[in-house]
């Protein structure tokens, strides 16, 4: 705070107190942030340990590539990646993404069991198509989860981008579940997740992770083509 006196002029400017702060600069609110929120995380994403983010991103790339190749080893990389990303997303105030990592951990374990059973029965990991009912249930469930989680984050937390965060959460949950069930359409969901993620993480200053998700989009397109080829050859 700057102290001034109107009674006794001073030849020198008055000192600025130690705790004086500059006037805040206005900035546009990110997509999905609460109107009127006074919490600003504009400088906090830089505090995220970039080494952890880099290692997690590398593990995630390996995980998705191995999924596309239908390798059982994908789960080792996937479990390690979600553990590190939990730290990254917590520090970036992406709470839905943080909580999602624990669900990812459970779904990775479920997928590991499911894929191992298929491998034991057939000697490989077969892939299947979603039924019409499964598609409608996925669409309805994804939209409901996105809305409910978005409202919860909007009303109860200082989440940076609650509705974009919740949409990504719902899409990723659906994609991970159907990946564990070996459905070809999981790659369509992963493409949507990657598209949302590129913008979401860039808006929070997680530039390395945003770039990784751009690469993951290309890998998801490859996985979609590869699983469709395998599914046709199984018929």
Automatic annotation (TrEMBL):
Segments passing through the bilayer: 72-90, 96-115, 136-153, 207-224
InterPro entries named among the record's database cross-references: NMN_transpt_PnuC
GO molecular function: nicotinamide riboside transmembrane transporter activity
Broad class of the protein's primary localization: membrane
Keywords: Cell membrane, Membrane, Transmembrane, Transmembrane helix, Transport
Region Disordered: start-end pairs: 1-23
GO CC field: plasma membrane
Protein topology in the membrane: Multi-pass membrane protein
Location in or out of the cell: Cell membrane
Summary of the function given for this chain in its UniProt record: Required for nicotinamide riboside transport across the inner membrane.
Family indicated by similarity: Belongs to the nicotinamide ribonucleoside (NR) uptake permease (TC 4.B.1) family.
Name the record gives this protein: Nicotinamide riboside transporter PnuC
UniProt lineage: Bacteria, Pseudomonadati, Pseudomonadota, Alphaproteobacteria, Sphingomonadales
């Amino acid at each position: 705070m700057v102290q001034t006196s109107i009674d006794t002029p001073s030849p020198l400017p008055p000192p600025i107190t130690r705790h004086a702060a500059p006037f805040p600069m206005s900035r546009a609110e990110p997509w999905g942030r609460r109107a009127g929120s006074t919490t600003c995380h504009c400088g906090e994403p830089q505090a995220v340990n970039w080494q952890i983010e880099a290692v997690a991103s590398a593990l995630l790339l390996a995980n998705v590539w191995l999924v596309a190749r239908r390798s059982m080893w994908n789960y080792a990389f996937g479990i390690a990646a979600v553990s590190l990303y939990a730290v990254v997303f917590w520090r970036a105030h992406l709470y839905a993404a943080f909580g999602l990592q624990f669900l990812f951990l459970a779904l990775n374990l479920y997928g590991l069991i499911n894929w191992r059973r298929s491998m034991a029965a057939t000697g490989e990991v077969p892939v299947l198509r979603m039924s019409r009912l499964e598609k409608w249930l996925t669409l309805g469930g994804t939209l409901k989860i996105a809305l409910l989680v978005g409202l919860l984050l909007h009303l109860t937390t200082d989440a940076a981008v609650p509705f974009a965060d919740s949409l990504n959460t719902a899409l990723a949950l659906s994609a991970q579940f159907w990946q564990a069930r070996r459905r070809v359409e999981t790659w369509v969901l992963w493409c949507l997740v990657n598209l949302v993620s590129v913008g979401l993480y860039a808006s929070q200053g997680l530039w390395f992770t945003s770039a990784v998700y751009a690469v993951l989009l290309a890998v998801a397109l490859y996985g979609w083509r590869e699983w469709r080829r395998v599914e046709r050859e199984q018929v």
